[in-house]
Amino acid sequence: MKSKVLFIYPTQFRITGLPIGLASLSAVLKEHGHSVKIFDTAFYGSETEKSQTILRTERLESKEVKDEDTFTPLNTTLLEKDLIHYIHEYKPDLIGFSILETLYGMSLDLSRLIKKEYPDIPIVAGGVFPTLSPDLVIGEDSFDLLCLGEGETSILQLCDRLAEKKPYTNIEGLWTKTKDTIIKNEPSKLQDLNTLPIPDFTEFDSRLFYKPMQGKMYKMVNIATSRGCPNQCTYCGSPQLKRFYKDHNCGLYYRNLSGKRIIEHIHYQIENHSPDFIYFSTENFLAMKEVDFKIFVEEYAKIKIPFWIQTRIDTITKERIRALKEVGLYWLTLGLEHGNEEFRKKVLKRNYSNQLFIERMDILAELGMGASLNNIIGFPFETRELIFDTIRINRQLYARNPLLESNVCVFTPFRGCELYSVCKENGLLGDAPYTTSQDQDERSVLNFKDDFGDTIVRMVRTFNLYVKLPESYYDDLEIAEESTTEGDRMHEKLLNICHQREQEAQRTLNARK
Ligand code: B12
Ligand code: SF4
C-alpha cells in the first residue's frame, strides 16, 4: 500500500509561477510510488479584483499585458466548496500545506475548514514560514504536524509510515502533536541537490505555468540552479534559513547544482512541458562557478529557448552577460533595494557602491539588455529624503538605459528576519502576529510615529513618475501624490504624459533601427 497526498499551495490572487519546493516533494514521493495531487488558490477571486500584473502596469513598473485572461481565466466556483469536494473525491491519507508568511492567514482558514470536515486526515504544515516560526504554527489546532526545513526525506518517511500504519513520531524534521505533548525532532540533514530527483510539475494547474514578460504571456518553467544565497540582507529570509541549518548542524544551506545537472533539469522540463520560456528562479544565478557556467553556456546554445535570470549586481561581468545573451538571455531581475549607500550598507547589509551599480548596469546598456530593478521603500529609520535617494539612482540608470523597469514594494517585516527584530526593538511592529498578503500592497504594516506611513503610500503611487519624468514636473508630482480629486486628476495627467514620452522614445528607437 502507498499513501495518497494532497498538497495545498496557498497563493495570492493570480500569482503564477511554479513552487520548486512542492514540485521537489512531489517528485520524491512519486519516485517511491506514493500518489500526489496539488490544489492551488491562484485563480479564485472576483473579476473586479486587480491582478498583480495590472497593479504593476498601473504603477508603470511593467508593460501592459493584453492577453493575461486568455491564459489564466478565473475559476467561477467557490474555493472552499471546491477544496472540500476535491478532498471528498481524492480521499487523501495526508494533507500538506506549503506556507509563506503572507499566506498564513489563508492557510489557517483552509486548514480549519478541512479539520472540521475531515478531522481524521492528518495535516502537516511546511515551508519557509513554519520553519522560521514553528512554535506559532504548531500551536494552531488544525495542524497535526510541522515540517522543519527541507522536507524531502521527512515527507517520504511520513508517507511510508502512514502506508504501513506505523507510528511516525520519531521522524527527523517533523514535529508531531500527540494528545498531551508536542514531539520535536531535529531537522534532517540538507540534501545533495545533484542526487535529488528533478522537480515534478505535472500535478500543477496548467495556468500556473503562464507568466507575463514584456507585455506578453509565456508558458514558463522554473529551474532552480541552487538553494540558498551566500549574502546577508537583513530583510530577507535566506540568511535566517542559513543560520537555522547551521545552528542545527544540518550542513550548508547555500548549494549549487552542477552545470551538467542543470542541463538535465532543463531537458527534462522541456520534454515534459514544452515551455516557451525558462525562468531561473535561483536568487543569485551568476554566483555559479566558472566551470559550471561554461557547461551551462555550451549546452544551452543547443536549447534555443529564451530565458530570464535573477542575479546580484556584483556578479555581472561583460563576458558573462554577452555569453548568456548569445544563447538566449532575454531579461534580468536585479535588487537595487535602496539608493543611499550608507543606509543600504548599515540597515540592509548590502555592501556595494552606487558607482559599482551604475558601472555594472552600463554593461547591460552597452549590450542592449533590459532588466527589472527591485526597490524597497518603508524601511525602519527611512525618511522621505532617503526614498528620494532611491528615486535618484533609478533616474540615473533609466536615463542611461531606457529598457530598464523599476519595481517598488513596501518593506515587510517577515518573522525571523534580522530587520524584524530591529522593528520589534524599536516598537514599530503592530499587534498582528504575522503579515497577510492584503497588508502588503502599498501601506506599511509598521507603526511609524509621524506621518511617514502616509508618505510611503504617496511614494508608491508616484515612484515611477518621479523616476521617469523631468524634474520640471516635480511640483505637479507633489500634487499627484495625494489621493484627492485634484491629486487624482494630476496623477492621471502625468501618467498620460509619461506614456506619451515613452511611446515617442520607442518610435525614435524603432526609426534608428
Ligand atoms: C522562487 C521564489 C518565489 C517564486 C515561487 C514561490 C514558491 N512558493 O516557491 C514566486 C516568484 C512565485 C515567489 C513569489 C512570492 N514570494 Co518568494 N521566493 C522565492 C525564493 C527566491 C526561492 C523559493 C524556492 O524555490 N526555494 C527552494 C525550495 C526547494 O525550498 P522551499 O520552497 O522552502 O521548500 C522546501 C521546504 O520549505 C519544505 N516545504 C515547503 N513546502 C512544504 C510543504 C510541506 C507539506 C512539507 C512537508 C514541506 C514543505 O520542503 C521543500 C523542499 O525541500 C524564496 C527565497 C528562499 N530562500 O526561500 C523567496 C521567498 C520564499 N518569497 C517570499 C515572498 C515574500 C514572496 C511573495 C509574497 C512576494 C510578493 N510580495 O509578491 C510572493 C508570494 C507568492 C505567492 N505564492 O503568493 C519570501 C517569504 C518570506 C516568508 N517568511 O514567508 C522569501 C523567503 C524571500 C524573502 N523575501 O525572504 N517567490
Ligand atoms: S541577495 Fe537576495 S536572496 Fe540573498 S540574502 Fe540578499 S535579498 Fe536574500
Short key terms for the protein model shown above:
binds cobalamin, TIM Barrel, 2 domains, Rossmann fold, 16 strands, seven-stranded mixed sheet, binds iron/sulfur cluster, 513 residues, 19 helices, alpha/beta, 15% strand
Give a nutshell description of this structure.
The chain is α/β, with parallel strands linked by helices and 513 residues long. It has helices spanning 20-31, 52-58, 68-71, 79-90, 104-117, 128-132, 134-138, 152-163, 238-247, 259-273, 290-300, 318-326, 341-346, 354-366, 384-400, 418-425, 452-468, 474-480, 485-512; strands spanning 4-9, 35-40, 94-98, 123-126, 145-147, 174-177, 182-184, 210-213, 216-223, 226-227, 255-256, 277-280, 307-311, 329-337, 371-377, 405-410. Helix 10 (259-273) runs parallel beside helix 11 (290-300), helix 14 (354-366) packs parallel to helix 15 and helix 18 packs across helix 19.
In words, what does this structure look like?
There is one protein chain. With 513 residues, the protein is an alpha/beta fold. The chain folds into two domains: 162 residues, Rossmann fold, CATH 3.40.50.280; 245 residues, Aldolase class I (TIM Barrel, Alpha-Beta Barrel), CATH 3.20.20. The protein is built from 19 helices and 16 strands. Helix 10 runs parallel beside helix 11 and helix 15 runs parallel beside helix 17. Iron/sulfur cluster binds next to helix 9.
